[in-house]
Amino acid sequence: MPKTMRAALLDAAGGPEALRLGDTAAPDRVNAEFLVKVVAAGVNPIDAKTRAGRGVFEAIRTFPAVLGHDFSGVVVESPYSAHPLRPGDEVFGMVMVPRFGGSYAEYVSVPSLSVVRKPATLSHIEAAGAPLAALTAWGMVVEVAKAHEGQRMLIHAGSGGVGHFAVQFASYFGAHVIATASGAHGSWLRSLGASEVVDYTTTRFEDVVREVDVVIDLVGNVHDDTGSRSLTVLRPGGLIINAPTGSWPGFAEEVSAAGMRGTHYRVAPDGTTLAVISRLLEAGNVRVHVDQIYALEQIAEAHRAVESGHTRGKVVLKIAEG
User: Fold this and answer.
1) Is 278 exposed, middle or buried (0-12, 13-18, 19+ CB in 10 A)?
2) Gap between the terminal Cα atoms of the chain
3) What is the pTM of this model?
């Protein structure tokens, strides 16, 4: 192991240009952790929020910081010699930033409970696009909403990273899925399992949607009061689940006043759940769509793409050959 590694570094909050390429100390592996050589890393909205001074920025204790939650790569060191995952094995997973150094780097140290074997049918680029988005979607759709046949579920931002997984999981478990997205994504979302797609650029979803059991809110009130408007299409006592950090101030009070049930959702890097998702990916029951691929040197452009809000599926960084 080298003492230093190449990484995208953040010295202070700012725009995409605040991220710079440089050398930093390579991580140490301690206790029940893996050391992984990163081949590809996912780029998520929470990364952009944190870079800009929101998200989890206040929890960063030392600079320069390395962001990035998703990784796919190769095991360099295992927690112990008899561990089922050994040096040379291909793995993927999610690391909690800023408790750990992020995946916008050549190496990452990550707890063993957050690492699983990479699906053989996926490239590292594809696998790196899955963990955070898929685990978030699974938690909202399967664990909290308990997707099932006969359930009507409205999924906002259905074409995004979390959204395209949410559509697939809800459909897989039999729910009637209504997704909002721009018109260009309609046929693609139907191919993923959406029964209905509402083009938010031309139609107010509350004009055409009624009596849904669950709203998967991946927008909040940052755009056109999407969250508040969603309360009007829920059946009495319906459930709304909000994910984007800081996207809906007053969420709990507004939901309660409307007589609905509501909860925020925060993703956990749960390897056991990711292993289940991995089997669905490997079998082709669920797929990850990578919209754009950038080199690590293009990290600023990758953040601009994510912040545009117009990507289909995921944006991924290629860190190394693999």
Assistant:
1) buried
2) 18
3) 0.97
In the chain, where does DSSP find H-type helix? 45-51, 124-128, 131-138, 161-172, 186-192, 205-208, 226-230, 251-257, 271-283, 299-308
Give the distance from CA 245 to its chain's centroid. 12
Tokens 């100390």 identify what position?
25
User: Which pLDDT tens digit goes with each residue over 150-190?
Assistant: 999 999 999 999 999 999 999 999 999 999 999 999 999 99
What DSSP string runs through 188-252? HHHHHT-SEEEETTT--HHHH---EEEEEESSTTTTTTHHHHHGGGEEEEEEEEE-STTS-TTHH
- 229, 232, 231, 253: which is closest to 240 by C-alpha? 231
For 211-248, write each residue's pLDDT tens digit.
999 999 999 999 899 999 999 999 999 999 999 989 99
Structure-block tokens of residue 177: 């899925």
206/30 Cα distance (integer angstroms): 52
Crossing angle between the packed helical segments 131-138 and 161-172, to the nearest 10 degrees = 50
CA dihedral 131, 123, 164, 177 (to 10 degrees): -100
Q: Which residue has the tokens 């459930």?
A: 239
β-partners of residue 6 are 23
